[in-house]
Cytochrome c domain-containing protein
Amino acid sequence: MTTRNPAGWLRSVNRLGAIDLQSAFFQSLGRNGRSCSSCHEMGAAWSITPREIQARFDATDGTDPLFRPNDGSNSPRADVSTTQARRRAYSMLLRRGVIRVGIGIPEDAEFVLAAVDDPYGYASAKELSLFRRPLPSTNLAFLTGVMWDGRETTTAFLPPMHAGQSNAVLTESLIRQVTSATVGHAEGLDPTPEQIADIVAFETGLTTAQVRDDVAGYLNADDALGGPRILANQRFHIGINDTLGADPTGAAFDPRAMDLFAGWSRQPERGRVQAQRASIARGERLFNEMPIDIGGVAGLNDALGVTSIRGTCSTCHNAPNVGNHTVTLPLDLGLTDASRRTPDMPLYTLVRKSNGDRVQTTDPGLALITGKWADIGRFKGPILRGLAARPPYFHNGFAPSLEKVVEFYDTRFEIDMSEREKRDMAAFLRAL
Ligand code: HEC
Ligand code: HEC
């Protein structure tokens, strides 16, 4: 099925045939009226966007099932008695498209919560308020970790795994995720085995990508390889194209992880359509080849013991034509640092038990699952398909547009991109 977005058209296809709108995915399973599709909408690449959330609020005075205080509002104790109160209570969801995920500090963590600055007066060591974007419930066959912090991943995935082929560990993780989502987001009882099987079969059958760019036209025309049908046949296994050469097939790392639009770089640059195609192709080359000195990234620089790694976007986004990381590798880009905190986000002060070190963060990420100091602020790099349909970006919705994503990287790693390079990169990301 094809849906419109500001850059063009997005398409979702289902391996099993037509997309079954009767699936339990679309049915209310709990007690608050929510279904999976309350937060995972086809037109938003199976996430949700502030534009559409605001429209839903306006159409229902903020009573659509999305607007529920358990995790939709800034605090579960927020006043939701009037439309005006609801507009305040759900301001994070309305403006940033984020859900409040509540996770406490593990008992045996290497750190304690020394101070909380929560503008909504709720968070504590028992339950930190973590404002996170719904990840797309599509293209799941390529996942190497489930959730931003990988917390629903039951064990490290084992090779080999091919797109469309069932993988026991991934399936097990997704089964767990369905139960957590039904009990948590939908405030229901445990779903039945039939409902779980239906939902997992539904979501794992989906493949989604941008299929048409308003200027460049069909993204699979004239030797280009965009769109969901080609993606559904993308070769994949855990560890494919591993950056450190650990691909189980023994193949060496190829930084040209994205290879969708090379065909468009060979065309004469005549007219508006050709110019846009050339720009997308240049953006893809930049993604694969533009040098980035990667420094200060926890999970990478500290793990390898090197202060700077000469890499590219594809060092981290190495899954061929998909763009996540092909082994579970959550990283800290610095998005949760106090320096990037905006006044609408809570700020947590963590103190390390062993030596009194302090750090301030808006979301400890993986550290809340492992209890490890070194894991503070680490999140997975998500799949980079269907991006144009689902702003804002990063786990906390920090970047309202793909231009701002590119801007972030340019500043963060002092790349010094030209204006044209930034435009090309954003055009490429929009075409995914
Ligand atoms: C209230 C909104 C909401 C509802 C309802 C909801 N989800 Fe989610 N979903 C989220 C958020 C937010 C995340 C990311 C949370 C995180 O990583 O901490 C997420 C993550 C996921 C992921 C992980 C994808 C990945 O890349 O790791 C899957 C799969 C998923 N949801 C499927 C479902 C299913 C199936 C249902 C229905 C049973 C459902 N969700 C209901 C908000 C929701
Ligand atoms: C050091 C590893 C690393 C490098 C280099 C890197 N990324 Fe990322 N990328 C990540 C991680 C990790 C995330 C998720 C961060 C978060 O949300 O906390 C991410 C997120 C993103 C997102 C947001 C996706 C979404 O669903 O919200 C986009 C888009 C993106 N990266 C594009 C790029 C581009 C373009 C480049 C090159 C200019 C690049 N990345 C370089 C690791 C990296």
